[in-house]
Amino acid sequence: MPGNAEVPLDMMKSRSWRWVVCLLVIVLGAACTPSEKRTIRVAIGTQNATINCATGGLLLRELSLLERFLPREGAYKDVEYEIVWKDFSSGPPITGEMIAGHLDFGMMADFPAVMNGVASQQAGKRNVYIAALSGSAAGAGNGILVPIGSPVHTMADLRGKRISVAFGSTAHGMLLRALSDLGMDPERDVTLVSQQPAEAEAALRWSTIDAHAGFVPFAELFPFRGIARKIYDGAITQIPTSHGMLVRAAYAEEHPEVVVGLLRAVIEADRLLEQDPERYSEVIEQVTGVDAEVAYMFHGPLGIQTRDVALKPQFVHGLRVAADTLVLLRRADDHLDIDHFVDDRYVRQAFEAAGVSYEERIARTAKVPITGADALTGAPIADPKRAAQIWVEGETWVRPYGSPASALAARRKLGAEGRQVRAMFVHDRHTGLKLLAEQAWYAEPPDGDLAAFLSRDYAETWARERKGAVKQLAELKAEPAPAPQPPPR
């Protein structure tokens, strides 16, 4: 019967081969189909205008350093990175975005960083502090400004006045500590008003506010632009301050190699900036609009702050002080365990991968020195607190001088030659803080050994002890130039 007819052997073989061929086509086709790449987001909240964060954001983006150091091997061989940069004017908005899961990394100062830790804790989440970017063991970088024509010269003069500050910023923390040190109650003795830097600039220009507490770079930028005068620097508190980087703990646990790669990029940006501060200060200006001269005040030799990715003990101490200050002044409901908040595992791995000793970087506390010879006299530069610098219009490099008197003589000479000066820097004889020459007070003793100071009170004390006079740069420039001293034989 047809239904029971046997199938010839050669036909069975033919059908079997057809099935084998079909199966091979299916298998090989699947094997030849490219595997779907895994995408990892790297979303970073930056503060570009806060220029001491440049090595953690702005320079990484402009120089494509992050792409260079993200992992590409092993489990990351087929990974595609979605790099997201979001810029903010202060730290608190970054905190909100991190808690919402819209950002993976954020950079901010110690005071808002502690508030970030508290807020994430209250939200049932955890962010950790993984690296420093820049800081000052003395507290320099924040400052209190008054309008140019203000009669205010000291913090005590601000009793009963209106002071603006970006609430939740590191300048806010500095202001609260400064008032507390003077025995002033921030809720009774002054009126605090919340203002972001852009609002404060206009308020200072038109004298609609008595003072503004500013963070980096505005405590230097507004005076440089001639709209304010600094009467108080955070260095007076002698409490360490720093800016650093945070990451969502869950993200770091899932992608630890990405965190290490980001920190390796930061280490490289730090190296480049130390090597050529003038060049990268110009890059910072191009991106942010913050004048290169102000960027150089932070990133050049003997800068206002030191840059380092290492989590130095003094900066961790600054976080503890910030946490204690928040609780003491009833600005936070919960206390943050700093030992649990700070996690140095990733930055240690980054330094090891870069071939740099982490312990040596932890121990390095000195600022990058001003080296070489005085550009006017040829004498070696010996005392950092007496050093000065001039950035001449049209020149790539900043000129060094051994003293304010030598720099002043050079400035007079440049003026006689018709050369323009972009900026002149001097250093506070008491603290070593880098100052804009036009903003400093000078004690001029009979021997002509000019000493520069931020505070008029310090200048007056110095001058009185040496039977000298207190002057400002405009008065000194108008005086006849003394003959420069020859270099020692």
Describe this structure in words.
With 489 residues, the protein is an alpha+beta fold. The protein folds into 3 domains: 38-135 and 241-363, 3-Layer(aba) Sandwich (D-Maltodextrin-Binding Protein, domain 2), CATH 3.40.190; 143-237, 3-Layer(aba) Sandwich (D-Maltodextrin-Binding Protein, domain 2), CATH 3.40.190.10; 384-478, Beta-Lactamase. It has 19 helices and 18 strands. It has helices at residues 9-32, 58-62, 65-69, 91-99, 110-122, 170-181, 197-205, 218-224, 249-254, 256-275, 277-288, 292-299, 313-328, 338-341, 345-353, 358-363, 404-416, 456-465, 473-478, and strands at residues 38-46, 79-87, 105-109, 127-136, 143-147, 162-165, 191-194, 211-214, 228-233, 241-248, 306-307, 388-392, 399-401, 421-427, 434-436, 441-444, 451-453, 469-471. It has a 6-stranded mixed beta sheet. The protein has a 5-stranded mixed beta sheet with strand order 7-6-8-5-9. The protein has a 4-stranded antiparallel beta sheet with strand order 13-12-14-15, with helices on both faces. α10 (256-275) packs across α11. The longest helix has 24 residues, at 9-32. This is Putative aliphatic sulfonates-binding protein. Belongs to the bacterial solute-binding protein SsuA/TauA family. Part of a binding-protein-dependent transport system for aliphatic sulfonates. Putative binding protein. Keywords: Signal, Transport.
